Amino acid sequence: MSAAPLVVLLAPGVTPLFATARRARSLWPDALIVFLAPALRLLVLQNELTVRGLFGDLYRMQDTESANLADELAGHMAAAIRRHARSATVEAINTRLSRQIPQPANVRRLLQSNQYLASVLLNAPDGIVFLDAHGTISLWNDGAMAMFGYDEDAAVGRPLDFLSCPGGARDTPTLLSVLAEVMDGHAAMRRDISLCNAVGQRVDVDVTLAEVGDEGGRCLGFALFMRDVTARNRYQESLAAERERLLVTLRSIGDGVITTDTAGRVTLLNRVAETLCGWPLADALGQPLSRVFRVVQERTLEPREDPVSQVLRTNAVIELANHTALIARDGSRRLIADSGAPIRDAAGRITGVVLVFRDVTEKQRIEDALLRARQLEAIGFLAGGIAHDFNNILTALFGNISLMRLHVPPDSPVLALLEQADQAFYRARDLTQQLLTFAKGGAPLKRTGSLRALIEDTARFLLHGTKTVTSFAFPDDLWSTEFDPGQMSQALSNILLNAIQAMPAGGTIAVGGSNVRLRPNEVPPLKEGPYVRLFIEDEGPGIPEADRERVFHPYFTTKESGTGLGLATAYSVVQRHGGHIGIGDSRRGARFEIYLPAADTHPAPAPAGDERRARGEPDGGRGYVVIMDDEEPVRSVCADILGHLGYEVESVADGESLVSLYGMRLAEGRRPDAVIVDLTVPGGMDGREAARRILAIDRDARLLVSSGYCNDPVMSAYQDHGFVGVIAKPYDVRELAANLARVVRASHDKT
Known about the structure:
Blueprint: E1 6-10, H1 15-27, E2 32-36, H2 38-44, H3 48-53, H4 56-60, H5 64-100, H6 105-123, E3 127-132, E4 137-140, H7 142-148, H8 152-155, H9 175-183, E5 188-196, E6 202-213, E7 219-228, H10 230-252, E8 256-261, E9 266-269, H11 271-277, H12 281-284, H13 289-292, E10 294-297, H14 307-314, E11 318-319, E12 324-327, E13 333-344, E14 350-359, H15 361-407, H16 414-437, E15 447-449, H17 451-463, E16 468-473, E17 479-483, H18 485-502, E18 507-518, E19 529-537, H19 566-576, E20 580-583, E21 591-603, E22 624-628, H20 632-645, E23 648-652, H21 655-667, E24 674-678, H22 687-697, E25 703-707, H23 713-716, E26 725-728, H24 733-750
Parallel strand pairs: 1-2, 16-18, 22-23, 22-24, 24-25, 25-26
Antiparallel strand pairs: 3-4, 3-7, 5-6, 6-7, 8-9, 8-14, 10-12, 11-13, 12-13, 13-14, 15-17, 17-21, 18-19, 19-21, 20-21
């Protein structure tokens, strides 16, 4: 193989020659590659034979690659020689004319301009192509050659459409269509066109096509000025694809997204943001953020600070304060959680702000409900202990007052004082009952039936003697529910008393109910299914928006004499029944709505009404009764009452003593007719364990459970623990006598 040749390249500004040089270097690393300057090539190269002679070594290598390279080099150099020859001819003619013809200054300038124009046309970096009047290429400059890879010989004389891409490219016009528009009378047309280069690659060009005419207006041809915009279009396509991916991502995000410029004008909303704000993207673009994204304090409705201003001021990520509400375009309100962050360019400069937010209305409602439940549970521990001890005190106190009433003559002035003390007793008992409603583990003593009679009786009883009237609206087919009459009556009483106090001058309270089937999450936190919905609506001033979330909180009250336990008690009672209580929409005043699970979707006949406690003399009795209570005052007063009623009584202080005494009497053949068992005995055997041991030796034992903690689960399910009755503390003579008489009669009947 011969030594590496000397490679001589002409026209160093032409792109194909650089590519050729790289290929030559890859074949012959030691080759000497020389680029000839235009002045030198005039002296050395005069014809194609001389050109091919320079590459004789390449031809003699006898391999296809070397021969192809030699041909390519020779072809480029020959084309350069021909172009130079034409330029030299024009230059020679101009030189002769300038010598033979007297030249005024303006003629000399014209000749110089022609030379400059020829040089610009041939050497311009953009593609410049001249067509004759028939659309055939007559001039092809170096810029066009570099752009498409065809030299002048390959292009001149060919029709314009040889650059068209097979099958067309994208949705752009063709060169022929642009030429046709110019031929139709358009002086010049500018279009973006996709063409193909010599190796079949697409080239995007910005082409301007203009007609060239003589002084008489006759068309001499057409001029095309083409700039390669392939890189620009690829970049724009990449940006468009990236933007589309961004928009698809934003549309898929479950949170609302808004972007703004540094002036706080909206530049983008995703679909979730459109829904939450109530603004379509087309309407929101360019609007101030404060108009599209209105945020206020949830309770006071005071405007929140513009988040864009916060981000720009702090130059950091920010989060909106808790209890922030978004006011939509239609005026609806949603609680939101929000964060904002600056948008930065590649240089780190802030160019805008992005906000990301989500609707947390339902989540907040559920969290508030759970918080209220936890508050009630915490208070329940305290309330249960206090109420238990307080009820023991009340039992001893008013048991003795009841005994005094039995010994006072009917005409004694002391009787009136005892009546007032008796009334105070019932008020105190109602208060402790409200406290006990909060106690953990309290379960209602339920029965299945219709709530209609209960609520009608409760309303009529409370409104008797007031300036307020009621209107009832119940369907005949109201479903039955499971409820504790005492607890539910108390809950309804508290709501009705609230309504009465809201209308001191009188008015109408609307009370009613309906059957509903709830869908999932329709009334959080209730499950889907059938429910009975009750409503109580007054004509008072209503509940301020700021207080709506707090009316069920323990000890919250707007009344000077209020305890703050009424509505909290109602809330707890309804919750323990597996229901929900809330504030509904009303055009008049306050409207409370209660949902309770339906026990049966068939209509339940309403009971005739709750029996009222008799106010006469207590029932007498006979029999043997044992009392177990850890509180000595309670044992003493209970024994005195039962002794006065005619019973034989023994008492003990704890469960161990009770079991021992019961076993002893049973061995003697003196089974007690009834045993009153205190449920809670601090530091000793409690009533439940004592009952279990007694029933183990005598399954027919007649045991009554008693406790000051009347919401204890044992009290609500006493039969499951072997008891035959319940006596809740505090109790008066009549209640104790009635409960005991029922049990003793059953014991005697059995024997």
